[in-house]
Design a protein that fits this description.
Structural class: alpha/beta
Strand order of the largest sheet: 7-6-5-8-9-10
Distance between the termini: 35 Å
Largest sheet: 6 strands, parallel
Number of helices: 15
Helix content: 40-55%
Strand content: 15-25%
Order of helices and strands: HEHEHHEHHEHEHEHEHEHEHEHHH
Number of strands: 10
Shape: globular
């Protein structure tokens, strides 16, 4: 249940439908054998089964559950970032996290979107009017000891915390900066694409300021040590909904430096918004981060902890989901 917040949220979703008087069939969205010929009042979920069942139930209320950016935006980001990297570095890295084309959003009556206003803007204008934002919960359960955080934090230690799709999530840009700035430490946490690592292994071999920690459970002692130590999380991702990695670190007072697609709402108040995906943009962000007055820096830490704790939790997710679902049902009726 702790591996991803969507597991607990799936239970909340089923519980909410049931509490409103519906019999619920829970099915894996990618297994064709899950699709049956029974008639349903509501189809809720993700492609490809969302499309299959929506076509079999044209009279049903069709709610698409979007957890990332619009698929055309993500495909374009994967292709453009990979092609540019291969051209600049003389490599042949394959496309990673390339989503399949689908028309789920066009088929849907309404879209429940995990994300922010930045996420909505990745959609075509005609689809944006269907979107209802919902705040996800967080699978991070630890409590930040503020006194310990303020005593432990290092202005010279930074984090990149992500999953597969290393180019899409901007790890190359972050590495390029820290390779030539040994005065700052970078901690890389998460799964890295094999071909990406093969290329960078030799380039970072002599960089004592860059440490690859691999996958870490957010409940582990090593992760908590890094969360207390690191001052900023650099996440120049090209496509997200609302990154769980960003909000987990915000709960530990790690200030976000993120692209618009990897950012939370009001990012300018709680951190730094990267204007573009480039090493130059990261360099400007680092200048901002490392010259912050101590009082302002500590204030950001406190505000990140408070904001994230009250925004991304299971109770709020349940309340928002119930409200949006009731509204969608009422509109359909």
């Amino acid at each position: 249940m702790q591996s991803h917040q969507n597991r607990r949220e799936a239970l909340i979703i089923g519980k909410t439908f049931h509490s409103l008087g519906y019999n619920v069939k829970v099915a894996c969205c990618s297994e064709p054998q899950e699709c049956d010929n029974r008639q349903y009042d509501i189809i809720f979920g993700l492609e490809p089964n969302f499309l299959t069942m929506s076509k079999r139930n044209p009279q049903a209320l069709k709610i698409y559950y979007a957890t990332g950016s619009y698929w055309k935006h993500q495909r374009a980001m994967v292709i453009n970032r990979t092609d540019l990297f291969n051209k600049e570095h003389g490599t042949q890295l394959p496309y990673a996290r390339l989503v399949i084309a689908h028309d789920s959003c066009e088929m849907a009556d309404v879209i429940f979107q995990i994300g922010s206003s930045f996420t909505i803007r990745t959609y075509p204008p005609e689809l944006q009017k269907k979107i209802k934002i919902i705040n996800q919960s967080s699978n991070f359960f630890q409590e930040c000891d503020l006194k310990h955080k303020l005593q432990s934090v290092s202005i010279k230690d930074f984090l990149w915390f992500g999953s597969s799709g290393s180019l899409l999530k901007g790890l190359d840009l972050v590495l390029e900066y820290f390779i030539v700035h040994p005065q700052y430490n970078l901690h890389v946490v998460g799964t890295i694409d094999d071909e990406f690592m093969d290329y960078y292994q030799n380039r970072v071999a002599g960089c004592r300021n860059i440490t690859f920690h691999g996958y870490l459970s957010t409940a582990s002692e090593e992760f908590m040590h890094l969360a207390y130590l690191c001052s900023f999380n650099i996440f120049p991702s090209g496509s997200e909904g609302c990154p769980g990695s960003v909000i987990a670190l915000m709960q530990m007072g790690v200030v976000p430096i993120a692209s618009r697609w990897g950012a939370v709402e009001q990012i300018e108040h709680y951190g730094y918004l990267l204007p573009e995906l480039s090493v130059e943009a990261i360099s400007e962000a680092m200048e901002w981060a490392t010259t912050l007055p101590r009082e302002k820096f500590h204030k950001l830490i406190k505000e990140n902890i408070s904001y994230s704790k009250h925004t991304w939790n299971l109770e709020r997710f349940e309340n928002e989901f119930r409200s949006l679902l009731q509204e969608a049902i009422k509109t359909k009726i």
